[in-house]
Design a protein that fits this description.
This protein has 221 residues and is α/β, with parallel strands linked by helices. It has a single domain (4-202), classed as Uracil-DNA Glycosylase, subunit E (3-Layer(aba) Sandwich), CATH 3.40.470. 40% of the residues lie in helices and 10% in strands. A 6-stranded mixed beta sheet has the order 1-3-2-4-6-5, sandwiched between helices. The structure holds uracil. Uracil is lined by residues 31, 45-49, 52, 58-59, 63, 85.
Length: 221
């Protein structure tokens, strides 16, 4: 049996030489993702920035330092989680990724999800949120878990947005403080066969959200 490490490294090897969209021509390095292949939590950001493109690693700039701080606040380190992005190459001048670039790159993150099989997919920012919460607004749904057939989806603001607007800091930190509760709830549901489906509904997750959530109304505003 090929281990998760082996399967991930096969995907990453394909990414290193990928030319499926125009972003390949401006990149220094691809940024497939990094962390623990057996992680319970998979963070998905947007796209590499300058430092990520230089180093080939996700979230190594200012946003990454803040992400490290948030992880530390809940007793986690990078080695406990896996961190990847919606697109694996830096868009020019850090512009937003385009729809065709995200579409071309999508099979990579889907394969990473299948291999890592995390209990929780934690999205960072609007673009990764859009993969699992189509048409949702981040200002409305951040910090609200959605439970699918095999895992939960938990949307965060992007760390860069929080660095730009310090009013978001307490919100971000309280959303983070609940992340491990979401992990525990998935474990409970799996143990009680409440998440017994073998087929993941990642591509089309349900619209149900955490009934304990304080902000249920307007999920799909
Ligand atoms: N922002 C992202 O979304 N991803 C990174 O890897 C770095 C910054």
């Amino acid at each position: 049996m090929v281990t998760k490490v082996g399967q991930l490294s096969a995907v990453h090897t394909e990414i290193y030489t990928c030319t499926l969209c125009g972003l390949h021509s401006g990149r220094t390095r691809t940024v497939p993702g990094a962390g623990n292949p057996n992680a319970e939590i998979l963070f998905i950001g947007e796209a590499p920035g300058y430092y990520e493109d230089q180093q080939g690693l996700p979230f190594v700039g200012k946003s990454g330092q803040y992400l490290d701080e948030l992880l530390k606040q809940i007793g986690l380190a990078r080695d406990d989680v896996f961190i990847a992005n919606v697109v694996k190459c830096r868009p020019p001048d850090n512009r937003d990724p385009l729809a065709d670039e995200m579409a071309a790159c999508n099979p990579y993150i889907r394969r990473q999800i299948d291999i890592i099989d995390p209990l929780v997919i934690a999205t960072l920012g609007r673009y990764s949120m859009g993969m699992f919460f189509p048409n949702a607004r981040i200002s409305t749904i951040h910090g609200q878990a959605k439970y699918g057939t095999v895992r939960a989806y938990y949307p965060f603001f992007h760390p860069a947005a929080v660095l730009r607007d310090s009013n978001l800091r307490p919100v971000m930190e309280s959303d983070f403080a609940r992340l491990l509760t979401v992990v525990e709830e998935v474990k409970r549901r799996r143990a009680n066969d409440e998440m017994s489906a073998t087929a993941s509904d990642d591509a089309n997750p349900p619209t149900e959200i955490d009934p304990e959530s304080p902000k249920q109304m307007g999920l799909f505003d």
